[in-house]
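[job 0417] fold request received: Protein tweety homolog
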Amino acid sequence: MATARLDYIAPWWTYWLHNFPHFNFTFQPVDNTFRPGEASYQQSLVFLACISAAGLVLSLLLLSVYLTSVCCCRKEEEEETKRPDSCCVSWTAVITGLILCSAVGVGFYGNSQTNDGVYQLTYSLHNANHTLGGINSLVSSSLGSMEVGLQQHLKRLDEIFATRGDYVQALRFMGQMADNIIRQLTSMPELSKAKVDLSAIADQTDYVEYYRWLTYLLLLILDLVICLVACLGLAKQSRWLLTMIMVFGVISLVLSWGSLGAGTATAVGTSDFCVSPDKFIANRTKDFLSAEVTHYYLYCSQSLPNPFQQSLTIFQRSLTTMQIQIQGLLQFSVPVFPTAERDLLGIQRLLNSTAFNLNQLTVLLDCRGLHKNYLDGLMGVCYDGVEGLLYLCLFSLLSVSAFCVMLCAIARAWTLITSRDRDYDDIDEEDPFNPQARHMAFNPSRASHVHSFCSYSSSLDSQASPHPPPQTAAILPTSEYMNQSMLFGGNPRYENVPLIGRGSPPPSTFRNIFSQNENHLPVYD
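[job 0417] inference complete; emitting structure tokens
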């Protein structure tokens, strides 16, 4: 039952990328046909990467101008204008963080897609290389059997059958059939060159893809870490964290522009190949494969004749004739020449192994196996591979935009934090409404300058007046005074709690002091 041929259709995005303008370094248009060995075509791809370099220079220039205007030309702002500005900076940082996280997600997907496509390509190349290696091995084994093993047996049998002309004539005829087989095998195309090329391409592709995947993975992790640390720095309002993020943000901005240029050049070059892969492969194999053989494997149509069919038919017929001759010699010559049985059986085993090799060779030379590997490789690199590169380019664009906005927002936040710290430094420490001054009032190191109620009551024996000095009560902090006034209530939950900021004894001590001094106080009518 015949199977339908699988056709390859290039995806639309490869045509879109293929139509990108190709210019060399002198701004002359270049043919967009995939020709990686020509210098003009290489220059056209490098020119695409240089566009990203120009974008990097422009973005760094604009960021420098903005940072200079923020740091050097900033005016003093009132409190009413600071609050809306801080809100704007916060919302800008939040939106930028969301965009950057989305870009990282797109980058992970694109990196995985590209890796899957390249893996499918290299897997197909290794399968095709295994097929070509099997063909070369079978051809070499059959040639060795005919040229060495068979000739040795025929030479010994020629000496044994020297007295029988009919047997010698049968041996000569078998030699002619062996020569036909050798001629057909040597006329087959030399596939060892293609085998070496596929193996080298697969190994080099695996090597480059591993480091490409690892580089993008580290870049994605770096972007994610920068985003998280930037959020932490803005939340904690830490200037050194924001400064560190600005440095790493510039580094990541440079890397993002570089990845955009490399990804664009690679996607365009791959698309140039995917639009017309048959033409490129035919040009690369014309030195060791005929156009008929290349066309047969590239298109594998049932209407195309097998270019090896004639050679395989002659091989099969010659081998069948030799097997018939050996069978007759074993039947009629062994009773007369018993010593010839060993060589005749050796030739029979050799012919049987050659027939087995012929069956395997017929299967491997069929176009369906290699054509399937060819289609699988194209599907992998042109669908998953180029699609993943487009997602990686989108990731680079989003990350570039996000980092530009993030650097501007962080620079603005840095200036706001600096302005706030300077305003705090300008507040008068003697201001009673200053939180910093209230904190200093509760400082234990300053407790010696404040007279507690305990120290006042202990000095009642030496006081002539029954009323405490008014200035002493005036300097007590409000919170401390309220805590001391609660002592008269005798609330048990404050029994074991020291006075705030003073380290004073519990309220029971005060009751003992008053009970001891009660009789010494003067009584007024």
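[job 0417] notes: The CA atoms of residues 43 and 192 lie 33 Å apart. The chain has a mean pLDDT of 80.
[job 0417] exit 0
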